């Protein structure tokens, strides 16, 4: 499901500037997951970041390298650019 409101002006100025810089530096628009992260940072983004950090950097039998490699592999299977 894609949220069209993520393309609107509902983002804070600082977040819009960060996404614009990402686009300029990468040559691509910011992915929707980044837009969602910034859209409601206080309620969605901060929790999303905390969960991501726990999954990718928290205690695990897998090394950070193994987790990053698996994430990249799954993203490629899903034809996801990040």
Describe the structure.
This protein is mainly α and 82 residues long. The chain has one domain. Helix content is 65%, strand content 0%. The protein contains four helices and no strands. The protein has helices at 13-26, 32-39, 41-57, 64-77. Helix 2 packs across helix 3. The longest helix is centred in the middle third of the chain and has 17 residues, at 41-57. The model has no long low-confidence stretch (mean pLDDT 83).
**Domains (count):** 1
Give the integer mean of the pLDDT values.
83
Order of helices and strands: HHHH
Poorly predicted parts: none
Oligomer: single chain
Structural class: mainly alpha
Give descriptors for this structure:
82 residues, globular, 65% helix, 4 helices, mainly alpha
Summarize the SSE layout with pairings.
Blueprint: H1 13-26, H2 32-39, H3 41-57, H4 64-77
Helix pairs in contact: 2-3
